[in-house]
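Q: Here's a chain of 292 amino acids. Please give me its 3D structure as tokens.
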Amino acid sequence: MIDAGRNARIIFFIGRRSVSSDPNITMTTILDRLFSIGPVRKTIWRLWYPFLTRRIRSEGVLFLNYAFQTEPSVDLQLLPEDEPNRACIQLYHHVASQAELLGKQVLEVSCGHGGGASWITRTMQPASYTGLDLNPAGIQFCQRHHHVPGLTFKQGDAQNLPFPDQSFDAVINVEASHCYPDFPGFLSEVARVLRPGGYFLYADFRFRQSIPGWESAINAAPLKVVRTRDIGNEVLRGMDLNAQRSRNLIRERLPGFLQSLGNDFAGVPGSRIYSALQTGELSYRSWCFQKS
């Protein structure tokens, strides 16, 4: 069994020592190197997300994804309590509105802190909506904060979905699959739990060197592409809208040696992720798939 606390302390201690001994090395650089060691990637994310939840749960952060802003902007009618999260909600709206969810049974894989799950359930009115996430602290956060009829949360692994075959009419996955060591295996699991005719509504990003493998897995998946779109410009505009709030949160809630990683995670202007999206080194896309 993984001792998350102990392993987190080891990773953060290595990061702190490396950053302090060489100012040109950041925690992000260290994690990039560790990500290249296959299964280590999943362990790092298994440690990072509970750590992050504990750091920011008192701030009531409901979304862990980047954001989306069209030009002109989408005129979504939001409740006052949803308005601070408009840019993140707009990303969920873009992804989820690609198929009719009214009266459907929907699964979101890697639901984070549940903000998207809550908003979709309240506004698109599926018959049921299940939010699944590997992070047990995140699931506890969701269960405390989101009390919506038809919405439930469950801890579980995206690559081993704890549901019978053909359980759902739609599966949603927003900005999470880059964390999975076995992306083709995840797509197979999505196809397994979808009913015939069901939809997989998906958005994520990859760096340039990873795009061929990403596209190859998608082309080989047992799912038909209904539509796809590059949404990098919309995501950049969304990052701009969230920038000040993200900077404040990072400065207040993360220790100094983790703030470069926090900036990347939040996509603030000037971060590596933001710059890569500007230059085309990073591609952010959305898809609508259908199971035959």
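Q: Can you summarize the key feature?
A: Residues 138 and 144 are 10 Å apart (CA to CA).
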